Amino acid sequence: MRTRFLLTCASLALAAIAAAACASSDDGEVTQPEQGPPTVLPDAGTTEAAADAAPDVEPELPRCSAAGWCKTSLPDSDLVMKDIWPLRDRAFAVAESATIGIKVLEWDEATDGWKYIDDGTQNAIGFGKYVGSVWAPSADEVYYAVAPGTIYRGKRPVPPATAWEWTRQRLEDNSHKGEPAHDPNHDHGSPTYGLRKSNYPALGVWGTGTDDVYAWYSNTIFRWKSDDGGAPAWVAEYVADDHDGEDEHLFFLSAGGSRGDVWFSGARDRGDAFTSGNTYNCAVAVRRTSESYRRIADGVASTDLAHPCTERTGFLHVGGPAGWLTDIQAAGTDRVVALKGTRHVARISLEDGNYAVDFSNVPTREPATLYSLWWAPENVWLSGWGIILRGNDLVGDAGAYDVSTISLTGAPLATPMYRIRGTESTNLWAIGERYALHKTTP
Q1: How far apart are CA 408 and CA 231, in angstroms?
Q2: 301-348 tens-digit pLDDT
Q3: Distance between CA atoms of 99 and 351, rounded to whole angstroms?
Q4: Which residues, listed in sequence order, are joined to residue 281 by a DSSP beta bridge?
Q5: What is the mean pLDDT of residues 128-138?
Q6: Are residues 26 and 198 in contact, defined by beta-carbon separation less than 8 angstroms?
Q7: Contact 431, 131 (CB under 8 A)
Q8: Of 310, 241, 256, whose CA–CA distance to 287 is shortest?
Q9: pLDDT reported for residue 12
């Protein structure tokens, strides 16, 4: 195994700009507030129009940034956009709102606007505490995850009907039965992520096609399938229940890959993961091939702050900085990339029959937090607090990152950008609190 931390001189200038990326999160229920953002340096100069505008005159704001990130119209101003799944000419997203709860949205290129498509039942009593992920195999079918441990499936109706048709199914809770917090009313899909000092959804859905869809909830991976020719349902295929103690939990957080080769990323976390969180954790990665599952990466979580995760015999040790393994994505044959912690990109690859891991250190100044990663053959994209970064392809020893400005006025966009995702480099989305930005330029 080898570990490399990659920095370039050109990246040092980025550190000053990245001070705008304050550690913050709104992933589910926040258990304790994080530091407010430090003094922020804008990613572009103040525009003359803004400087010359009279105090009582509202200047007309540009729609797009210098880097081509364009603002799209949201139906409500307080939407916190949490996840997005783009297609060629449309996109689906899930959002949280303090006033109207969990919402599901669709964007259409023809109108360049967002509209609600949910049926409202996700906000019934006992539901809607937080939202997980969204995934769509086509323009006429979409899945999303919402608390408590529920997957919704939507189908576009045949005209002249207009309202989407929705069904839902509650996932089985296979969390550690011996833990003190286990009871029928406890939701194990919202553990506290110590590095972010906020909750993170261990609940989501993803697939490779209409007949190959997966979901995860806490420590279990499910697949949407039909047994014995009956109606399809969510069937548990893999349960990570090998806890080392009563205070330890295992979580799955993300999925990626291709048909016949699907990866799931997560964490082994020791401590009270439902109230305070901690940094005693190990990265976990599971690979599904040929109808079987194999755990590739794992470790031994320790309460020793100097060594929060040590090697576990028989598994790849994803060491380096503390933090969970999130946003995993295929990056070629036998290779995946993932966000490790809040400022490192990890690459896991199979070479000569053995798995190895490399790291790319994204040069952000503490307490900067990165929330999301999306990989394309020519670039790796990351989103954080008020910032979007573009890095070189991680196949080689590259690692330079540049700011892709999202400022619309010359002032920084001081808001968390929770997700970046695209279909290609000319169809990218960056979403967050009150914003859904679309980029169609190289």
Answers
A1: 49
A2: 987 777 889 999 999 999 887 889 999 999 989 999 999 988 889 999
A3: 51
A4: 269
A5: 97
A6: yes
A7: no
A8: 256
A9: 34
